[in-house]
Design a protein that fits this description.
The protein has 343 residues and is mostly helical. It folds into two domains: 1-150, no CATH class; 152-318, no CATH class. Helices cover 65% and strands 0% of the residues. It has nine helices and no strands. Helix 1 (2-24) packs antiparallel against helix 3 (64-94) and helix 1 (2-24) packs antiparallel against helix 9. It is globular and about 70 Å long. The relative contact order is 0.11.
């Protein structure tokens, strides 16, 4: 079971950033149907259809390279899905870790549906963002199953647990905002850092920026999405990064006095520094593909470190509550009292 979980985790570490690479390299519609490629098992079998589509639209989303990138991601995701199904079967059979294994299986089914809708609905932003969040959820559950047994719980004040929970929540929302930026191609809407297009606070327009039921690049009425909406999407992601930074600084300030947590806090701070550096570099260097993919992977690393820290702190709080829970007086030794006992 443990080997299966680790194998699935290593594969998920490849699949999630590779999905970002497919999207950012404009290969998301390299095969415009699902699950095959023009109804075939591979781009090699669909070479004639791909060649015809490329002839009709030389600059379109279909080419042999894009088709192979798209299908390679599907092959890897399918292999990960088979491993997750095997993990769920073993968990049910061995009666351990059934809850996380069940969550994995549910996430797998949802991811398959979202993967199909991503293609059939032509990269609709809400579907693409949801697909990203689903992949991150699979990765985080696997990381928790693999790593949490080796992390020792640490007794800390309740306020530190609440602060760690707020940080994990803020990172989840920030990840959703980052997915929304990427799926709307708003990463370069703000030029420069820390200013945005030469302004310390740009003009924002919210009426269309976060409308979920619209097509890619369009407003809800079908007109083109205006540039101010893209700036708004990008700027909110920057503000989210500021909020995460403040929460993390507070957590480091309060948690540093807990010596057993220092190594974990240092890892969390290092992941944050790398992620912020990648975000700034993506803006200043005009979104080079390797850095954009690394930014996606960095988000997964930062969120994972935060969730594992929260798990350590909550485990100790749960154990403490169980220890303080009063026993039912009729069962002083874990059994029914006999005549004359328990008086």
């Amino acid at each position: 079971m443990r080997k299966l979980v680790w194998l699935a985790l290593l594969l998920a570490v490849i699949v999630v950033p590779f999905g970002a690479y497919v999207r950012l390299s404009h290969a998301g519609l390299g095969c415009p149907d699902w699950p095959g490629c023009y109804g075939r098992i591979s781009p090699a079998h669909a070479a004639d259809d791909i060649r015809q589509a490329q002839t009709l639209a030389p600059d379109g989303p279909v080419s042999p390279g894009k088709a192979w990138r798209e299908m390679s991601h599907r092959y890897l995701a399918g292999t990960l899905g088979a491993l997750i199904a095997l993990i769920a079967w073993r968990a049910w059979r061995e009666k351990r870790q059934r809850l996380p294994a069940g969550l994995l299986l549910a996430a797998l089914g949802l991811q398959g549906l979202l993967g199909m809708l991503t293609v059939t609905l032509l990269l609709k932003p809400v579907i693409v963002t949801s697909h990203l969040l689903g992949g991150m959820a699979v990765l985080q559950i696997l990381a928790w199953m693999a790593l949490s047994p080796s992390l020792q719980p640490v007794p800390v004040p309740a306020r530190l647990v609440r602060l760690a929970g707020l940080l994990a929540l803020a990172l989840t929302l920030q990840l959703a905002l980052g997915g929304w930026v990427s799926s709307n191609y708003a990463a370069l809407a703000c030029q420069g850092f820390p200013a945005c297009n030469g302004e310390s606070w740009p003009a924002l327009r919210f009426n269309h920026a976060f409308h979920l039921l619209r097509e890619l690049g369009e407003a809800p009425d079908g007109s083109l999405l205006d540039f101010a909406s893209l700036v708004t999407i990008h700027w909110l992601h920057r503000l989210g990064a500021l909020l995460v930074s403040l929460l993390l600084a507070s957590l480091l300030w309060l948690g540093w006095r807990e010596r057993p947590l220092r190594r974990h806090l240092l890892c969390l701070a290092a992941a944050w520094a790398i992620q912020v550096g990648l975000g700034i570099a993506n803006v200043l260097l005009q979104l080079p593909l390797p850095l954009a993919v690394a930014h996606n992977a960095g988000a997964a690393l930062l969120l994972g470190a935060s969730l594992l820290l929260l798990s350590r702190l909550q485990a100790q709080q749960t154990a403490r509550r169980r220890a303080l829970r009063p026993r039912w007086p009729l069962f002083p030794h874990g059994r029914l009292s006999g005549p004359g006992e328990g008086r």
